[in-house]
Fold:
Amino acid sequence: GGAALTWSWQYTAPAGLSVDSTSVTVDGRSGALLWFASQRSARVTLLLLNAGTRLGRVVRNVTLDKGTVSGFDQLAAGDDVSLTVTIADTGPARSDARISVGVDEQVQAGVWQSTVFGGPVFEARDLSQPRIAVLSPSQAPSELVNVLVAGVLSAPGLGGAAPAAIVCNLTWAQGKVPAQVVGVVALSDWQSGSGLVQDYVPTTTVISLMTGVSEDIMSQLSAVGSSTLAAAQAAGSTDNYVVVVLAPVAAVGNASVDATLSLSLGARVVSAGFRWTREPLGAAVAAAQTENGDLTSGLSGGLRLSVALTNFAVVRKASEVVVTFGGAAVTVQRLVASGESSTLLELVVPSVASARSVSVTVSPRRLPSNAGSFTLKYVDDRVPTVTDYSPYQVYASGGTNITATVTNMPAVPASGVSVLVQVGGTSLPAITPSSLVVADSGTATLVFAAPASTVAGSAVFNVLVLSTGQASPTVSLSLVAVPTGRAVVARLSPSSVLSSGGTAVSLVLTNFKMLVAGQSVVANLSLADAWQQVPCTVGSSSIQQTSVSFVAPAFTLGGVAGVEVYRVGRRSSAALTTLTLVDASQPALQYVFPSSGFGGQATAVELSVSRFRTVLDARFYSVAALAGNSGAVTAVRSGTDGATVLSLSLARQASTASLENMTLQRCPTSGACVAVNFSFSFLDPTAPIITSFFPSDVATDGRIPVTAQMRNLAGGLAASQIFVLLTDPTGSLSLNVSLLSVAYTSASAAVSDATLVFTAPGVSSTYAAVSLVLSWPGGRAAFPATLSYSSPPDVGLVSVSPTRAVTTQSTPVAITLRNFPGVSQLSDVVVQLSSGTTTLTASVVSVVRLDTTLAPLAIQSVRVLANTPVSADATEGLWRLSVFHTSYYQRVAFRDGFALAAGGAPQVQGMSAETGQTGVSSLTVRRSARTLVTVVVATASAAPTAALLGSSPVSLVQATYDSSARQATAVFNAPTSTCKTPCDAVYGMLVFGSGCAKCASAACCASASCSSICGSACVTACFALNYYDDLQPAVSFQSDTDGPSVGGTPLRLRLTNFPVVASGADVVALFTDALTLIAENATHIPNLKWK
Structure:
C-alpha cells in the first residue's frame, strides 16, 4: 500500500574552456592591445572560465611558446580560475606569442585526461626598434579630414627629418590613401608645452581642425605625451617623438573599417591601428534629460540638458552639431564625446514665452537626415517678484494707490491677479488691482488700493497669479494711523522776520495728514488787532511730515505774532506757533559779548546793533548805566551783514556783584538820538564764580563730559564732594550729578581757580533752558548760562562697502554711520539684513570712532565692520541693511539694496582706477575721459572672457587667472559718460565662459538676480561704476572748519577746476541756512562746524 516518489536526473558535460578577454593584464596594463617586451620578464593575469575543480578540472601547467614561464598562481572563483603567470623570459620579438594552459579533466571515476588549452596571443616587442607607442584619436570619421597624433619611440631618424619628407600611408582591407605629416616634435618639447596640437603645429589647417574639438578628443590627445613618456621609460628608449598627421578623406565603403597608419622610417616601417567610421544610415536615436532628471523646464529655461545619441554620425566639434527647439537654433555648449557607439553632448535649455511642448531635433551639420529628436515640456514656473513699490507707508484707513513693479509676471489681466496683505499675521481681504500692464519682458506695472485695517503697524503683501498659483515673496508695508488732533510745528525757519514783510518762512509739520492733489494750505497771522491770511506753498508732503512755506505779510508794528497753519477745510487741526516780527524802523540789539565782567576793573565788550544807521565816528556814541556806572565807546565798524559793531570798555568802581542795565545811544549833530538797552553783569572778583562752561547744548542722550572753568573755589575739595544740580523752570526736571574730576590751578591754596568736569545725564525729553548750580560743602555757585537739551540728530548711513555678498560665505562689510550714539562695547551695535518677514543678524567685528577728539560716548561718526550672516534663510536678492544701538533702538539707519548673490559664484573683491580711486565692488571714475579700471575677482575658476557695462560690451585689455589663489583679474577701459551729475550707478558684469547667451545686459546686477535671470550655466561677477564730474570745481584745502557764531572768521580755500577770475568780485560764497558754505556753482565744503 506504499507510494513511490520518482524524478529524472540529467547529466550534462561542463562548458568548454575559454578566457575572459577583459580580465587579461600585462604588467598591470589592460586593453585591446596586448604586448610585452621581448627578451624580458613579464607578469600576466587572466581569468580561465569553466576550469574549476567542481567541474572535474585541474590546472596543471602554463607555458609560453618560445619563452619561459617560471611559475603561476591560481585562485578558484566559482567555476572559474584566476591565473597569475610569471614569465622569466618572453623570448624573441614576434607577433604571435601565445600562452597555453595544461588542464587535467576527470572523464570517469579514477580516469583523467590531459588537455592543452590555447590561451591569449600577445605581441612580443623589440623595444630597441622604432615603434608607435600611442595613436590618437582611436577613431575618426572617414568623410572628413582628421588630425592624428602618434607617439613614436626609438626613432633617431625623425630628429632632423622634414615632416613633408616622411612617407605616411593609411591602409585598410580594400584600400590605401597617402597621409601628410605636418609636424615632428621631440617628446621632451611636447611635454614642456601646452599639449595642444595647434600650439606645436600652428598652421591654418591644424588650428581650424583642432579648435573646439570634443572633450573626448582633447582627453585622448592630451594623454599622448604622458603615455609615450611612460612607454619610453619602460623601454629605456631615447630619440622619442610626437608626429602630427593630416589624414585625408577616405572612401572606405558603406561600413566602418579597421585601418592602419604606417610611417616609413628609413628601411623600417612602424604602424598602429585605428578605426575609420562611416556615416550611419537612417535616423539617429536620441535620449535626453535635464539636470533635474526629466524633460521638463520652466519658461526661463537655463537648465543643463544632456543628450545621448546612437546611430549618429561621428562629429569632432560642438559647432558640427545642429540643435533646434521648435525650429529655433540653439548652440551646443559642450560636446563630451562622439564615437561609433554613441555621441554625448550638453546644451542649455532656452527660454520661451509661454508653456508648451517643444520638439527638439539634433543632427550632424553635414548630414541633416541623420537627425534624432525628442520632446521637452515647458511649464510656467515663473515666480513673480516685487522689485519696487511706492509708497512704502500708507494710512491704515486705506484707499491709497500703491504702484508696484513686478518681474516674471505672465500675460494675465488684472482680474487674474490678487494682492494679499497681512497685518500682524492677520490676512485682509484679497485685492484685485485697478491696473496691470505686462511688458513683453515679463515686467509688469501693477496698481492697487491699500486696504483698510483696524490695526496700524507693520504689514506685508505679495502678488498671487490665480491661473498658476505662483505667489511672489512678501515685501514690507507700513500702515500708519490717520493723524488726530492738531498738527505740530517741528521746525520754523526763520523764527523772526522784519515787520515790513517779504521774508519767506518755512515750516515742517508733523501729525499732519498727507496732502493729495487739489488740497491747499493757508497760514493765518495775528498781531494785536491785526489779522492776515496768506497762501502756503507746499514743498513736499508725506506721511512722516509736510513742508510748507509762506511769505510773511507786512505789519505796522513789531511783536510776537500768532501763526496757525492748516489745510483748507480742516482748521480744527491747525498747527499753532509764533513768529517774532521785528519793527523794521527801530534798531535791534544782535549780541553782547561777553555779557559779564569783574567789578573794580574795565572789561572790553563787543556789541552789534542792526538798523543803527551806521556812523563810524565813535564820538557820536555813548554808553552809560541807568545806575550811573559808565563806559566808553572805543571803536566803531561795519559788520559783514550791514550791522554796526561797536567796541566798548565797561567798568564799575566797586568790586561787588551787580547786574547793570546799560544804554547805548547815537546822537547825531542834529535830530533825535537813537538808543538800545542791554544788560551787563559785574561780578565780585573774590566770590566763587563759574566763568564759562562747554558745551552748552547736548542731546537728550547725555553721556558727554561738560567742562566748567571756575574762580575762587575753596581748596582741598574732592570730586565726590561737589555736585551739579540740574533743574527746569517747569519743575519737570530735577537731577543731581557728581563731578568726574576737579583740577585746581594751585593745589595747596585755600582758594584757587579750578577746572570741573561732569557728565551730562540723559533725559527723556528736550529742554530749552536747564539751570545749573554747583554745590559743595559750604557753598553754591550758579552757572553763567543755561544748558539746553535738544533732540538727537537722526542716525545716518553714509556708506556701505561692499554692497554685495554671497549667501553661502560670510563677507566683511564696512559701514560708515553719522550721528551714531557712543559705543562702549561691541554688543551695543546691531547690524541686520531684512527681506519681507525674514531678518538675519550680522556679526559685529569692530567699531572705529572717526573723530577721536569727541567724547567716547558722544553722538559721532563711526565705522562698523560686520560679517554678513550665513543662513539657510539667506536668499538671492536685494535686502535692507539696518544698524542701530541697543540702548537707542528707535533710531535706525538703513539702506535698501544690499545684494545677496548665489553662493559659489565669483565675487568682485577689489577695484582700482588709474587715477588712484579704489573700491571693493564699486568704483568712482571720471566722466570726461576714458579710465583704465582693474577688477580683482575671488572664488573664480577661470579668467573672464567678456565684460559688459550696462548693455554695452567692453573690450578686455587683460584677463588673467591665478589657479592657486582662485583669483581672476580683468582690466578694461571705462568709457566717457555724458550723464548729468549726480549720475546713477552704471552696473557692469564680468562673464566667465560661454553659457551667458541670455544675459545681454548687466541690469540684473542691480537686483542681485543674475543667477535666476541669466541661468545657472551663466557664471558672472557684478560691479558698479559711479561717474563723477571731474571738471567740476572742488575744494582741495580749507583753512578752518569751525568758528564763533558771531562770524568774522576768515576762510582760506584752495579750489581746483575753478574758472579764471579777474578779482574777488567775480566770486560769490554763500552761507545757507543749512550752515554749509556753497560756492556759486554749488561746490560744497563738507564738515563745517559752528559754535
Observations:
- The CA atoms of residues 980 and 1029 lie 9 Å apart.
